[in-house]
Write a sequence for this structure.
């Protein structure tokens, strides 16, 4: 197959900090003839002398989501476009992102030497066996053992135990000193040597070639930098599962609160684990099952919970001794906290704390397709409770009784000593349960400031098993909701899709758009996948989410609908203006401006504050109305509230907007001094005396 060439692609040019000296003659010629040059603030400044004076320069710092649209518009105008990227744009760089949002034919990559290659050359390390890890992620703070996969350093903590040499692309938050402290926290400080290469190819380049993690942990390094790590000691080759009971610390004096070796091995086999499985360990005890599952699932993660404080402490010490980084252990009583865990591929219940029936139902509901629930019991009563709960849920289940006998010395011979019998119950969702539909979840992102995303929404956005969908007006207009999550530093899951909803009052066109969106989303929901619909502002307030939810429910009533509430644009706008929307007995009307100016007059006698949404098409008429009614002084206009380019105008400043094009994401807040107020008692108008 021959790749079709675009006659005028956007050229993504890899650059280094020595400027034009790092470029080939071809790359430099493209840069000097470009009509539009896109780059970070530092990179644009570095190549200032090589960019034509006539060329437009766009700084993409903090505006990555807008870059594809800039390129589309420039190509439509037949402009020559160059994007400046550091090093090799296809090694954790911008090229893959642009290819996914444009098309492969629309770009041409002119790579440079990677900064990781340069660092290896400076230190003299062969890099063909290097594991490359990028820690460019939202700042999740310092690493603590047991942190979940959402932490920006989780992938690195995993890679350290699986590789001998690593090359790390750092970030302003995840710095070399923080990486060194991770190594110390994970007990790897004596096993690795570090090198830090600062400001490569610049006049003040510096390479620290022989640092111990303990030395690096207390130092600061100049940005930008990269880190190299290599082992000083052979990498351990631990046994993955079936370890002797004595290898685990157990509670004293009543030693034995552990799933015995033979039972543990069979239980892990029945869980049918894969390398990337997500595992729940409920009633962790000494932690043996969960820790061995973590070793078996090197690319997965284990979430464990234990209610007994002493056992929780023992399990933590066992985790430290076994050196696993993909194991999160919490102190608590299930099912508390399970709602925040991602849906599992496998669940092990070793202890239920009296909540067995409810736990079984919950776990079966949360299991991913093909997942297994395995439970161990030593009492007839718990076995009976479990089988009854499984039957009530319509699950497919079986029971295995396991009674091992271990040899014991007796005089000069050996006898067999029987262990207590254990019932191993294995269950999967039955046919009725496997037909469970996924949920359509409206994720409210707030009006534009990523800091206003709620904790509940943030937690759901960490789920790698969910699907993201987000609205846009056209293929040429980027999704504002997707831009918010990108500015928050959140990476999309493996599956995500933009849904087109045209800006029109044509009912037929809108209905067809909703049906197309429903057709796109429905297969995921039918497969039991949760779909997160990203919405700027609040998903329950004048949002496209409601139309899609109704369309889907009309097709299939079993689809679950959930709305995660968020900060409305008018609330954020009011806060930004430093004025409350309402006080004491004030009344507030929130109205789309599309109702027309004439409808607003009917609201004035009854409302102290008017919030007018979607004012773009009527802006001039609204300014005239404010002047005619004497309301201009108490009016405020806010555009793109919470976004980096937010604008606001108060009072007479609004006159400057007459005849100007404003954003669709605009609103007016009008304080109404004409409101007729009667005497009030506890918020109600006092009745006239008869």
């Amino acid at each position: 197959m021959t790749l079709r060439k675009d006659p005028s692609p956007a050229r993504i040019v890899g650059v280094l900090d020595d400027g034009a000296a790092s470029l080939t003659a071809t790359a430099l010629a493209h840069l000097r003839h470009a009509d539009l040059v896109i780059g970070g603030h530092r990179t644009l400044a570095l190549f200032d002398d090589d960019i034509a004076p006539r060329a437009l320069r766009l700084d993409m710092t903090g505006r990555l989501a807008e870059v594809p649209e800039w390129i589309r518009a420039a190509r439509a105008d037949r402009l020559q476009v160059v994007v400046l990227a550091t090093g090799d744009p296809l090694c954790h760089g911008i090229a893959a992102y642009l290819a996914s949002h444009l098309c492969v034919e629309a770009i041409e990559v002119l790579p440079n030497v990677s900064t990781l290659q340069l660092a290896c050359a400076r230190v003299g390390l062969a890099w063909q066996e290097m594991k490359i890890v990028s820690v460019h992620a939202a700042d999740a703070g310092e690493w603590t053992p047991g942190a979940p996969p959402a932490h920006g350093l989780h992938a690195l903590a995993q890679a350290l135990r699986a590789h001998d040499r690593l090359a790390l692309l750092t970030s302003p938050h995840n710095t070399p000193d923080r990486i060194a402290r991770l190594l110390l926290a994970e007990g790897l400080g004596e096993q690795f040597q570090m090198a830090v290469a600062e400001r490569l190819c610049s006049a003040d380049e510096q390479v620290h070639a022989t640092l111990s993690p303990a030395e690096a942990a207390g130092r600061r390094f100049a940005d930008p930098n990269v880190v190299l790590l290599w082992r000083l000691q052979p990498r351990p080759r631990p046994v993955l599962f079936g370890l002797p009971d004595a290898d685990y610390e157990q509670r004293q004096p009543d030693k034995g609160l552990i799933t015995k070796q033979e039972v543990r091995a069979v239980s892990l086999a029945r869980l049918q684990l894969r390398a990337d499985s997500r595992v729940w360990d409920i009633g962790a005890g000494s932690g043996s099952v969960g820790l061995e599952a973590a070793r078996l699932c090197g690319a997965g993660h284990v979430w464990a919970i234990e209610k007994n404080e002493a056992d929780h402490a023992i399990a933590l010490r066992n985790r430290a001794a076994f050196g696993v980084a993909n194991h999160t252990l919490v102190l608590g009583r299930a099912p508390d906290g399970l709602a925040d865990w991602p849906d599992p591929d496998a669940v092990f219940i070793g202890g239920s704390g009296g909540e067995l029936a409810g736990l079984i139902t919950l776990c079966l509901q949360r299991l991913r397709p093909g997942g297994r629930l395995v439970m161990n019991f030593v009492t007839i009563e718990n076995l009976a409770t479990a089988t009854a709960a499984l039957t009530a849920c319509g699950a497919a289940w079986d029971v295995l009784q396991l009674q091992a006998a271990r040899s014991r010395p007796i005089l000069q011979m050996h006898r067999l000593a029987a262990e207590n019998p254990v019932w191993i119950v294995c269950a999967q969702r039955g046919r009725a349960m496997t037909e469970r539909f996924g949920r359509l979840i409206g994720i409210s992102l707030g009006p534009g400031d990523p800091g206003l995303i709620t904790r509940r929404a943030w937690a759901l956005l960490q789920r790698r098993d969910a699907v993201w969908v987000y609205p846009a007006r056209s293929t040429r207009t980027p999704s504002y909701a997707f831009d918010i999550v990108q500015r928050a530093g959140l990476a999309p899951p493996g599956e995500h899709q933009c849904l087109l909803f045209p800006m029109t009052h044509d009912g037929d066109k809108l209905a067809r758009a909703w049906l197309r969106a429903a057709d796109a989303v429905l297969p995921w929901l039918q497969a039991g996948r949760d779909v997160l619909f990203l919405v700027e502002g609040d998903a329950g307030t004048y949002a496209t989410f409601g139309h899609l939810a109704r369309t889907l429910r009309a097709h299939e009533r079993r689809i679950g609908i959930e709305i995660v509430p968020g900060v409305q644009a008018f609330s954020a706008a009011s806060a930004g203006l430093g004025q409350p929307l309402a006080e004491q007995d004030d009344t507030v009307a929130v109205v789309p401006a599309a109702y027309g100016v004439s409808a607003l007059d009917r609201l004035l006698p009854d409302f102290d504050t008017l919030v007018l949404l979607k004012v773009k098409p009527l802006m001039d008429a609204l300014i005239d109305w404010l002047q005619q009614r004497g309301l201009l002084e108490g009016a405020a206009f806010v555009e793109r509230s919470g976004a980096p380019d937010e604008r606001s105008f108060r009072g007479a400043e609004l006159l400057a907007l007459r005849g100007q094009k404003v954003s669709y994401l605009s609103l007016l807040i009008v304080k109404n001094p004409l409101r007729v107020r009667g005497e009030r008692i506890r918020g109600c108008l006092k009745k006239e005396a008869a």
